[in-house]
Amino acid sequence: MYNIDEIIYDCPVEALSNILGKKWVAAIIWELQDNKMRFGELQRAVEGCTKKMLTQQLDLLITHDIVINDKKVLNNTVESTYYLSEAGLKLLPIMETMIYWSNKNLVCDN
Q: What CATH number does the domain containing 68 carry?
């Protein structure tokens, strides 16, 4: 059983699809693939994503150990840096395969 957002899934593919299918999640993971980024940098990189939505999706990804939030206190302020966990890095080849499949099999209207 897989619990994603209070929904129980029997199928691991369906559970992962629920995470990856959320708005902005794939873009967040893609932006973090080679980088450690602070919140503001990530928000600028994921154009159109609001602060509230970015916070919600980062919380989801952190909860499922896909993204790590490295918090440090410097001069009485908390500085957060986000990066992909080992599990998050393992999603990249899956996403690349999805991109390849989509480019070969789906019609894209531009």
A: 1.10.10.10
Token code pair at residue 7: 């929904």
Residue 96 lies in a domain: yes
Show the low-confidence residues of the chain (pLDDT under 50): none
What confidence score (pLDDT) does residue 13 get? 86
**Of how many residues is the chain composed?**
110
pLDDT of residue 51: 96
Instruction: Report d(CA 75, CA 80) in Å as an integer.
Output: 13
Number of structural domains in the chain: 1
Is there a contact between 38 and 45 (Cβ–Cβ < 8 Å)? no
Tell me if 61 is assigned to some domain.
Answer: yes
Question: For residue 110, what pLDDT is reported?
Answer: 63
For tokens 């840096």, what's the residue?
81
State which residues form the domain around 100: 2-104
pTM of the model: 0.87
